[in-house]
């Protein structure tokens, strides 16, 4: 059985779905602070899903789970993810993301569970010195969120030395889209991400989408990101666990499409997909935004046999259908 922490959230939920597609049994551990019981219920209709409501900050909650289920591997998503909030409230991020992971790893060590795939981020690299960014790029996270992810990568290495726990760290770039059957999708409150914010402006009366910054040193003045489809990303986790099972070797990989799109390009693609005019206004740049982030994912292709197959338009299409389903 595979344990998915944070499996009621956006990426965790899609990853859970992909493991179910592979015929795996899963147990989701989530405190439902940002995850949704509706996601768990949708997953329960698809396959063999157990759900345990609990908090990683509580050692007993996670120990009990390992006592009650025979866990073969762990996929770890649970954590706070908002960059801006992490700058304003670092304690929340360090206490939850780091202590929660330590509790999880201690429970794994106590129960002889030795394989974990960790949800890391391109935010660990900081302002890029070159693009596309490969795994050798220097690491200089600009905010507490990125710092917690980098610290956890180091902690994972220490737990390998001490207890033989093998880990794969997947450093995601920007994640987009929804399940192609629209059973689950992206659902954050508050929503800060680009694509759902554009789509909300289609469905929510009087809402205007804001482009944060039009004076960047890029071809159209807006920030460039690498948008990887959430189903492609979920597949990377299945392949990462397979790699651990076959090779028993820790490693880390960038997960992106190797293709950048500007905010304006994403907006234009969304207009095309929705066939709607969307209210837009130019706004000040958002604090802490890097100008350009694009992945070099050659290593994942070479060692995991993973490659992004879906395009930005594919992601916007499913994201649109998902948003539509929530407003109908
Ligand atoms: N962005 C924007 N308007 C929004 C949300 C985001 O212009 O309502 C821009 C943001 O400044 C960044 C890009 O879109 O350049 C991607 O932002 P997102 O929050 O989706 O992901 P991030 O790259 O911050 O992880």
Strand content: 15-25%
CATH class assignment of the largest domain = Alpha Beta
Which radius of gyration do the C-alpha atoms yield?
Answer: 19 Å
Q: Tell me the helix content.
A: 40-55%
The beta-strand count equals 13
In the sheet with the most strands, the strands line up as: 3-2-1-4-5-6-11
CATH-derived topology of the largest domain: Rossmann fold
Which short descriptors sum up this protein?
alpha/beta, 11 helices, UDP-galactose 4-epimerase, domain 1, globular, binds uridine-5'-diphosphate, seven-stranded parallel sheet, 328 residues, two-stranded parallel ribbon, 2 domains, Rossmann fold
Protein model, in words:
By secondary structure, this protein is α/β, with parallel strands linked by helices. The chain folds into two domains: 2-176 and 227-255, NAD(P)-binding Rossmann-like Domain (Rossmann fold); 194-225 and 258-326, UDP-galactose 4-epimerase, domain 1, CATH 3.90.25.10. It is built from eleven helices and 13 strands. Strands 3-2-1-4-5-6-11 form a seven-stranded parallel sheet, sandwiched between helices. Strands 7-10 form a two-stranded parallel sheet. Helix 1 links the parallel strand 1 (2-5) and strand 2. Helix 1 (10-21) packs across helix 8 and helix 9 crosses helix 11 (312-326). The longest helix is centred in the N-terminal third of the chain and has 21 residues, at 90-110. It is globular. The two termini are 36 Å apart. Uridine-5'-diphosphate (UDP) is lined by residues 174, 192-194, 197, 210-212, 223, 225, 263, 286, 289. Uridine-5'-diphosphate binds at residues 174, 192-194, 197, 210-212, 223, 225, 263, 286, 289.
